[in-house]
Structure formats: structure tokens, C-alpha cells
Amino acid sequence: MTIIGIAGGTGSGKTTVVKKIAEALPDHCATVVPLDSYYNDTSHMTDEERRAINFDHPDAFDWRLLNEHISMLKQGKAVEQPTYSYIISNRLPETIHVEPKPVIIIEGIMALINKKLRDMMDLKIFVDTDDDVRLIRNIRRDVVERGRTVEMVLDRYEKVLKPMHQQFIEPTKQYADLIIPFGGDNKTGIHILKTYIEGIVTHSLKK
Fold first, then answer.
1. Most confident region among 3-7, 49-53, 129-133, 198-202 by mean pLDDT
2. At a CB cut-off of 8 Å and minimum separation 6, what does 94 contact?
3. How far apart are CA 172 and CA 88, in angstroms?
4. Which runs of consecutive H residues, i.e. helices, occur in the chain?
5. What is 59-79 written as a DSSP string?
6. Please, is 122 exposed, middle or buried when counting C-beta atoms within 10 Å of its C-beta (0-12, 13-18, 19+)?
7. Which residues lie closer than 8 Å to 150 by C-beta, 6 or more apart?
């Protein structure tokens, strides 16, 4: 089994990179574990407390559960991945059944920040995209998908996203084996990455 971690700021193009990798591999060969599914359970909180959560801080994630699930997948055991709703800022009752596969991709803004998680990875990638481009993508996504106004997105970017990115996300570049500038637009970088991963998987499947 090959475990790949893909980190980068919000709006950097991580999802596109993950999609390109998955497309390059044989059918049903890879499974994606989104870091966003592992936000802490906030059932014990009030609505006001939930709204105050800083989703761009490491403390917002349930690292214990994520590490446990990746460890189980690595051992060939299936897991029940939690699902999270940004609308209610809490986990949903439903879970997603995840079977172990030859390639496990952990994708999220802070996928490389937790040492225990990093130590289980065979390949660590950081998707690096210009701040202005990421902001534009955030505006488009949050206005359309999360019902926020442009003013709300800009205010959150200035007060939360930018400082959290500089403090916690950007420094994780030092742990990356490979940095892909411009995210999904970097066709050459993605091609090299896909070729490398295809080689690893092909070698692994022949064993």
C-alpha cells in the first residue's frame, strides 16, 4: 500500500491534483481520505460556539481518529469515515465505508502538519498557488456552495484564512517531498507526479 499526503492552502488546487492522480491509476486502485471529514465532533457545543470555530487551525481536527483510521487502512482493515456539514458545523449521522486500497490519498490544508500522520506517508506533496488566485477561488466557491457574500469571504480571508495559512499551512512545505506550483494548472508537474506514482503502484501490484 502507498499512502500519499497532499497539502496546500484553501483554493490551491489540491482537489484537481488528487483527481488527476486518481485518473492515472487503474480503476478502484485508489481511495481519497479528505481531511475535511475529520473536523472535531461538536455535538456538545451550542450553535454560537460552533459558529466561532476556527476551521483553519490545527485544533479543529480530530487527529486521533484520523491517525487511527489511516493505521487501520494500512493494516488492511476497512473504516467508517465520518462526514461533516459546513452548514451545521458538525458531523452528520452518516458515515462512509472505506475499504483499504493500493493507494490511499490524504488530502487537506494541513495534511502534512501532524507528525504521526506524516510518518505513515510514503509520499508528501504540497500544492503551492499564489495567494490572489486562492482568494478568487475561495470567493467563487464560498458564494456559490456555502451561501456567503463576497464581503463575508473577504473578511474571513483577512482575519482567519491568511494568518492561519502563514502560521500553520505554509511552513509544512518543509516536509514535502514534492512541491507543485500553480496546482492543477501545472500540467508538467502533475504528469511527472502521475508517472512516478504509476511506477510505484505497478511495482507494488507485481509483488
1. 3-7
2. 83
3. 29
4. 14-24, 47-51, 63-74, 115-119, 131-145, 150-156, 162-164, 187-206
5. GGB-HHHHHHHHHHHHTT--E
6. middle
7. 139, 143
The amino acid sitting at 60 is A
Return the H-helix or E-strand segment holding 123.
strand 123-128
DSSP symbol at 159: I
All three cell numbers of 108, joined, read 487537506
Grid coordinates of 110? 494541513
Longest CA pairwise span in the chain (Å): 55
How long, in residues, is the chain? 207
Phi-psi region of 129 (alpha: psi -120 to 50; beta: other; left: phi over 0): beta
DSSP 39: B
Could you report the per-residue pLDDT of 93-109, keeping only the tens digit for each?
999 999 999 899 999 99
Q: For residue 65, which of 98, 24, 102 has the smallest C-alpha distance?
A: 98
Q: Return the higher-pLDDT residue of 33 and 132.
A: 33
Hey, is 107 helix, strand or coil? strand
Check: CB of residue 97 under 8 Å from CB of residue 78: yes
Q: How do beta strands 2-7 and 90-98 pair?
A: unpaired
Asked if residues 81 and 98 have their Cβ atoms less than 8 Å apart, the reply is yes
